[in-house]
Amino acid sequence: MHTDQDLEQQPVVRRLQDFDTSSGNLGERALFNYRPLVILLCLLATIVLGYQATRIKLNASFEKMIPSAHPYVVNYLANKADLNGLGNSVRIAVEATGGTIYDRAYLDTLQRLNDEVFLLPGVDRPFMKSLWTPGTRWAAVTEEGLDGGTVIPDGYDGSAATMAQLRANVARSGEIGQLVAADFKSSIVFVPLLEQNPQTGQALDYGAMSERLEQIRAKYQKEGVRIHITGFAKIVGDLIEGLQQVLMFFLLAIAIAGAVLFWYTRCWRSTTLVVMCSLVAVLWQCGLLAALHYELDPYSVLVPFLVFAIGMSHGAQKMNGIMQDVGRGTHRVVAARYTFRRLFAAGLTALLCDAVGFAVLVSIQIKVIQDLAIIASIGVAVLIFTNLVLLPVLLSYTGVSARAAARSLQADSADGAAQPWLWTFLDRFTQRRWAAATVAASVLLGGLGYLYSLNLKVGDLDPGAPELRADSRYNRDNGFMVANYAASSDILVVMIKTAPDQCTRYATLASVDQLAWQLEQLPGVDSTNSMAALSKLATIGYNEGNFKWYDLIPNAGALGAVQTRAPREMFNQSCSLLSLYVYLKDHKAATLTRVVDVVEAFAAAHNTPDVQFQLAAGSAGIEAATNIVVKQAMHDMLFWVYGAVILLCYATFRSWRAVLVAILPLVLTSILCEVLMVVLGMGVKVATLPVIALGVGIGVDYALYVLSVMLTRMRAGASLSDAYLHALRFTGRVVILTGVTLAVAVATWLFSPIKFQADMGVLLAFMFLWNMVGALVLVPALAYFLMPPKPARQDEATQAQERAVAGIH
């Protein structure tokens, strides 16, 4: 991967005319012999892609968040036309602050709010529901027979008589606990959403939708009510709204990285170029995404910073190599070429490992993760041009300041007792006693960590929206919904398929009722609702309100009569699909698992050719499917990413021993990262799954730079200690610099108002630091046992003689 010449072996060339421009490989000659052309092409690319980057959009999609190939989601999509409102929806609770909902002023406010929401773009209007929508009806048995109508009575004028009639209608509607709170102090406007705006044909703009909802909240809260809003669209809207603060933290992280790099180099030219090239990579990435019609979403918006961080890491290595060569008196152009020769292969392999870490995420059948994988892979591919090619070419023009070069040489040329104390300490890990203790401690830590990591859960571990802070407005609103409504926003719907016109048969409804009873016994289940429950209530009505009749009657006529008055969400037009609504207290992983397990077991025991119990619709049903996919993908993803990284490392080092030395620290980091997630109460889900893969791809960078220099020295006959000390002087300082700097930079995210970003900051800071420690401590310790030094090279004549004797030509 390197030329046989190492740092000191490459001749010092003080004048450019003394350098052989035909030396080096074809790629080096093509780049450095035509430097103006390289810079011109990069400048043109920056202008074109910079313009394209101004067109990139930030949005999200509900359908991209769901695993469309999972059987649960396949079932939902197959029946989606009959299940409107059970996917992407918003719930708006309008709370009366001074009394109950049976107040003329409150109902007037609710009507105007209802009408305004009804006209919002993207609302699935026929299925919107509130006290003021015609689809909200009541039914009752009177002396004259079965009667019913809209909950808001005809001729309502706010008078005492119509208000009393409204109170009676609400009581008979079955909406208490669903649209109306049990304490009658609030009611809900249920707003199902379309994925596309029918007026424009474009994807629904969640940022704009959330902004309009906030305007409605601000407008009507001035009229004596309090508004609470929940739903996927509001979560995404709040995340998008918080991105302005997210960008501030990005800028702070960039400033910290740049400041620390300048402190290390004391050279503003080289520091500016490293930061600039890393930012150019982000600009190219955003431009390419816009040109390919990709959008950033709240989950992939962190990727550009990861690209910047990876670029800073590689750029600092290139700059450090040039500084050392210039410090020895080498001309800046020659120094840039020497550094390109030494580090291009290591950098390319590291970036390919990063790209593989992202690319394997494409195998996960969730569109938002697949898009993230493509977005990140494009960013890493761009770094090959900006930080491995453009940066050395630019540094060949600007060079580094003489003071910085001399300082670098002075710091890295010391030996023996003059070695920095940290180098002396780290060199101990190349000794048998320290190496054995380190490997043993790592094995113990890895074993205990693995056992503890088995407690890692899949899915959300907290109620509400874990992406937002617990005290955020959204999570406070969600808490209000859970406390006041049995019909929470976390709905799982079991679909019961029958033959046409057979959905209200007694045997079918009896099975539905049996399953509903089993589900109601589970912790985390608030209530259920179905045609079976409605039929039992209707039976009471048919028998003068006597609760002794609260049961299903095996009478086809009676059951069919209920069907004619039942709400349409209970069954479809052809009576071939029933919906069993399961209202959950939360969507925690444990809650979803319990419900899914009971339904699966019931379906296995009761499914027949005529009646099929299928999972799952509703927000909680789709999340249950997502959790299952994520759990399987976590293991498959690690298998593929480690397999790819191992192959790339072997292609680079051509030594299985070196591959083990590079990979084992990554394995330990992956285990400890999962332990950290358990400790911090994070679940594996769409938002956190990619980080586990990124830890492998990003983490191998440090080991590759240290190990590549060690291998070159050891193959030249140096001892492990000498090779490691040389690697520390050449790349170790920058490994420490970038590891600590980037960890500190992302640690500032802890103060972000968006919990998702704060969680990512913790995980990334941990991985940056731990991968750095693994490269500096565990790599030399493993190398002691796996990479014993070879004897020094003999002269060429002796080597040729030995090869002839061995029959090697």
TrEMBL record:
Keywords: Cell membrane, Membrane, Transmembrane, Transmembrane helix. The keyword Membrane applies. Residues 179-432, 488-786 form the Membrane transport protein MMPL domain. It holds the Pfam family MMPL. It comes from the Bacteria. The chain crosses the membrane at residues 37-54, 246-264, 271-292, 298-316, 343-366, 372-397, 434-452, 637-653, 660-681, 687-709, 730-751, 763-786. It is a multi-pass membrane protein. GO terms for cellular component: plasma membrane. It is found in: Cell membrane. InterPro entries: MMPL_dom (IPR004869), Mycobact_MmpL (IPR050545). Its main location: membrane. PANTHER family: MEMBRANE PROTEIN MJ1562-RELATED, SSD DOMAIN-CONTAINING PROTEIN. This is MMPL family transporter. It comes from Duganella violaceipulchra.
